[in-house]
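Researcher: Quick test of sequence recovery. Tokens follow.
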């Protein structure tokens, strides 16, 4: 897909609406995660022919081989 200024404006429009409407604030330490999420949303949007099921399948492919580990409350840092 060629890069046009409209493509960049569309991506930042989705990013801005998501941050202002959903998250309200973004810490610099987590900025790359937010950018990755909105890149995924922009790349697999309905306008390009992706359905909700197709997006869910693509998202599930990204978690293969990864584990989510929770700390026990007794191991949590006391602030």
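Model:
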């Amino acid at each position: 897909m060629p890069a046009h200024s409209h493509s960049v404006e569309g991506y930042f429009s989705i990013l801005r609406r998501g941050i202002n409407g959903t998250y309200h604030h973004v810490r610099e330490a987590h900025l790359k995660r937010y950018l990755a999420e909105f890149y995924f949303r922009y790349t697999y949007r309905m306008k390009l022919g992706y359905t909700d099921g197709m997006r869910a399948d693509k998202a599930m492919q990204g978690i293969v081989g990864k584990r989510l580990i929770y700390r026990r409350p007794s191991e949590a840092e006391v602030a």
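Residues 68 and 74 are 18 Å apart (CA to CA).
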